[in-house]
UniProtKB/TrEMBL annotation:
Gene: GPR26
Alphabetized GO MF terms: G protein-coupled receptor activity
InterPro entries: GPC_Orphan_Receptors, GPCR_Rhodpsn, GPCR_Rhodpsn_7TM, GPR26/78-like
Protein name: G-protein coupled receptor 26
Annotated source species: Amphiprion ocellaris (Clown anemonefish)
Parts of the chain that traverse the membrane: 6-32, 44-68, 126-147, 170-196, 244-264
SUPFAM superfamilies (UniProt xref): Family A G protein-coupled receptor-like
Length: 354
């Protein structure tokens, strides 16, 4: 192993740990909180979490083994199964992101009719399509023996070396796969989220107009309060842009290098650096580690659920702790009041209260 392989191995190991922990937390939140389970986006997030978890325990460890041993991890049949999972899980996760973006677009653009437009039945139908779509491509690749260990990516995946006898067919298949998964998902993400951003900016402008009219009417308002309102307007506009940039940006950064390398590999006569191939695969794997934070754990509902679970594990409750502190303070005040009463009460033979 050279220095680049060591760095890549450490990177893959870190991705595995973060992906496993974060996706398990999302799964626990989904199972623990009934409100999350009732929401339609929860089904898409559950499917995305399932794909990320399975990818973390099947494909990523074999890539790590391939980097460490610099050889073929496992037998040919086992590698074909893992290659099938690689195509299926990656395609399924991309389409789940597209479904999530459509759901959020409907929720923002049509808020009053959202529950009638997007129901659990519609979500199940959409998930059924993602599974059929993914199964079709992965099954065709496996049946044609186009999956195996690829030295360029140090992983079991689509392998052009195994498809030398069907060069044109493999090229058409690969281009169709990435066009109907990566490119389709990217187009859906851009169209839906940019429409969401447009609506969000429109509402921000309306709020800004109302805020400025209020500031004009409040002549005696302190300059610091006025500046705080203006700063809040700026943060509100930036918040919407950052969220949309995160959704689209993480997808582009993580998947684009791998897809471009795949396409270049088909038409390039010269060899591609194995270090670049492994790096592009690591970037694709990193999407499984970032998805829980992008779509779930940074939302208020999931953070609140995580806080409740942490308090439950530590056997403490914020309500109980605050009430116990309040009881202790009340007891202390009662003792001090009784001492003060006894000190000022006149000495008589009558019992207190008579």
């Amino acid at each position: 192993m050279d220095a680049a392989d060591i760095v890549a191995s450490v990177l893959v190991l870190g991705i595995i740990v973060v992906s496993l922990l974060s996706n398990v937390v999302v799964l626990i939140c989904f199972l623990y909180n009934p409100e999350i389970r009732k929401q339609v986006p929860g089904l898409f997030i559950l499917n995305l979490t399932f794909c990320n978890l399975l990818l973390s325990v099947s494909n990523m460890p074999l890539t790590l083994v391939g980097l460490v041993t610099t050889g073929h991890p496992g037998g040919s049949s086992f590698c074909q199964i893992v290659g099938f999972l690689d195509t299926f899980l990656t395609t399924n996760s991309m389409l789940s992101m597209a479904a999530l973006s459509i759901d959020r677009w409907v929720a923002v653009v049509f808020p009053l009719s959202y529950h009638s437009r997007i129901r659990h039945r519609d979500a199940v139908i959409a998930l059924g399509y993602t599974w059929i779509h993914s199964l079709c491509f992965s099954t065709v690749a496996t049946c044609r023996s186009w999956v195996g260990y690829h030295q360029l990516y140090a992983s079991c995946t689509l392998c052009n070396v195994r498809a030398k006898g069907a060069g044109t067919q493999f090229m058409v298949f690969t281009v169709a796969l990435h066009s109907l998964t990566y490119l389709l998902t990217l187009i859906v993400l851009c169209v839906t989220y940019l429409k969401v951003l447009k609506v969000a900016r429109f509402h921000c402008k309306r709020i800004d107009v109302i805020t400025m009219q209020t500031l004009v009417l409040l002549v005696d308002i302190h300059p610091s309060v006025r500046q705080k309102c203006l700063d809040e307007q700026k943060r509100r506009r930036q918040r919407a842009t950052k969220k949309i940039s995160t959704f689209i940006g993480t997808f582009v950064v993580c998947f684009t290098p791998y897809v471009i390398t795949r396409i270049v590999e088909l038409f390039s006569p010269g060899p591609i650096s194995p270090h670049w191939g492994v790096l592009s695969k690591c970037l694709a794997y990193s999407k499984a580690a970032s998805d829980p934070f992008v779509y779930s754990l940074l939302r208020h509902q999931y953070r609140k659920t995580c806080s409740l679970l942490a308090n439950k594990v530590l056997k403490r409750s914020p309500l109980n702790s605050s009430s116990s502190h309040g009881t202790q303070n009340n007891a202390g005040r009662s003792d001090s009041n009784s001492n003060a009463t006894n000190s000022v009460q006149p000495a008589t033979d009558k019992p207190p209260g008579q």
